[in-house]
Write a structure and sequence with these properties.
Layout lengths: L1 E6 L2 H9 L8 E4 L7 E4 L1 H4 L9 H7 L4 E3 L3 H18 L3 E5 L2 E5 L4 H4 L2 H16 L3 E6 L2 H10 L5 E3 L5 H5 L12 H8 L14 H8 L1 H10 L15 E12 L2 H22 L1 E12 L4 E12 L2 H13 L7 E13 L10 H24 L31
Parallel strand pairs: 2-4, 7-8
Antiparallel strand pairs: 1-6, 1-7, 2-3, 5-6, 9-12, 10-11, 10-12
The structure holds magnesium ion.
Length: 403
């Protein structure tokens, strides 16, 4: 059996959780500019017809009393990470499909959690206990039906389609719930008197293919409750990096070190987004004569905090001879592993704890930057050194362009 879990009105629910005064009120999260669109609407706002992807201006017209908020992606990612930890502890086979949705393969979990309805209830409870948010869960013999099932009774729903019940569910499932069925295809099929997906099973597959092309084949299978797509945990990207060309070529090691710290922060942020950690750090330097030099080293323990990436990159920079001035400097992380997998413990427990603390610092900085802008907070050593103490709070830290 496959389980699909989908958080209810995720961004809006996170805002209502973080700000209790918003609970029970219509909340719309979306782009605030002239062409902004709704990213999420609380169920109170949905009662007024506000839906995601609707222009924000239209949402204001439909529900002027709603609280309109700009999205806080870093905050949502943080909550999403916490939910993924719950999912990872629930089943070894988890495939996240978006920030608030995932498929889980329940194979072999019955002994632990009991039959599917009990497993679904338990997962919903664990998610609520961890993040204080409700999720809708669908469990079915395949992926497509599991997703349709989670959508069936939102919010806070639990729908289980047992083997043998597929046809009954498909008989009442509107056509447009199938992927790839838009208004035009729905209209074409309506001419044949077809409104529900199950009704397509009566039409021979050849006729559907003649009518709809390749999409017909897929629909014919879905209408019969067939979807062999397995739940596939993602593999992390092979590498990611950050680099910048300097305004003026330099041999100044302090300046190069400060730039590496900025790159380490950027790469750490990308690693967090990819839920990955890196065993290999690559220092990339282009010299004044345009020759490109790289130094790479692989460590036994994977790193994901900016501090640890910086420390490793700095070690590579120290061994790099600066015979010529540097034109470009970059840092890349390679040998990526999933951050959720057990990492090799560091040699010293203290070092591991400090690395985890720095990961928390990185996350805190990212949410402050998101709320108040990039200049709001930065590492002290990124600021230009001054000879006299600054008279007051300083402006933004230097951030290099991204490569
Ligand atoms: Mg959702």
């Amino acid at each position: 059996m496959i389980l699909h879990v989908d958080m209810d009105a995720f961004y809006a629910a996170v805002e209502q959780r973080d700000r209790p005064e918003l609970r029970g009120r219509p909340v719309v999260v979306g782009g605030m500019g002239g062409r902004g669109v709704v990213a999420a609407a609380s169920y109170e706002a949905r009662a007024f017809g506000v839906r995601s992807a609707l222009p924000t201006a239209e949402a204001r017209r439909l529900c002027p009393q709603a609280v309109f908020l700009a999205p806080r992606p870093e905050r949502y990612r943080e909550v999403s990470r916490r939910i993924r930890e719950v999912l990872a502890s629930f089943s070894p086979i988890v495939e996240p499909v978006s920030i608030d949705e995932a498929f889980l393969d329940l194979a072999g979990t019955e002994r632990l959690y009991g039959p599917p309805p009990a497993a679904g209830r338990l997962l919903k409870e664990r998610i609520f206990a961890a993040v204080g948010l409700t999720a809708s869960v669908g469990i079915a013999p395949n992926r497509f039906l599991a997703k349709a099932a989670s959508d069936f009774a939102k919010p806070d729903g639990l729908t289980v389609i047992a083997p043998g019940e597929e046809a009954a569910f498909l008989a009442v499932l509107p056509l447009e719930k199938a992927p790839g069925v838009g208004p035009r295809m729905r209209e074409r099929l309506a001419r044949f008197g077809v409104r529900f997906l199950g009704e397509l099973a009566r039409i021979p597959e050849g006729e559907l293919v003649a009518l709809l092309g390749a999409a017909g084949q897929r629909l014919a299978a879905l209408a019969r409750g067939i979807d062999p797509t397995p739940v596939t945990p993602p593999s992390p990207p092979r590498s990611l990096g950050s680099e910048c060309t300097l305004d003026r070529d330099t041999r100044d090691r302090d300046l190069l070190a400060r730039l590496l710290l900025a790159h380490a922060e950027a790469v750490a942020a990308e690693l967090r987004a990819a839920d990955a950690a890196a065993r290999t750090v690559v220092l990339k330097i282009r010299l004044a004569d345009f020759s490109l030099k790289t130094r790479r080293r692989t460590w036994a323990a994977a790193a994901s905090s900016s501090r640890e990436l910086y420390r490793r990159a700095l070690a590579l920079l120290e061994g790099f001879p600066l015979g010529q001035p540097v034109r470009l400097i970059g840092l890349a992380a390679a040998g990526l592993v999933a951050a959720g997998l057990p990492r090799q413990p560091p040699l010293f427990g203290e070092q591991g704890r400090r690395s985890a603390e720095w990961e928390r610092v990185d996350r805190a900085m990212a949410s402050i930057q998101e709320r108040f802008g990039d200049g709001a907070v930065g590492r002290a050593s990124l600021r230009e050194p001054r000879k006299t103490p600054a008279p007051g709070p300083r402006g933004g830290g230097r951030r290099p362009g991204r490569g």
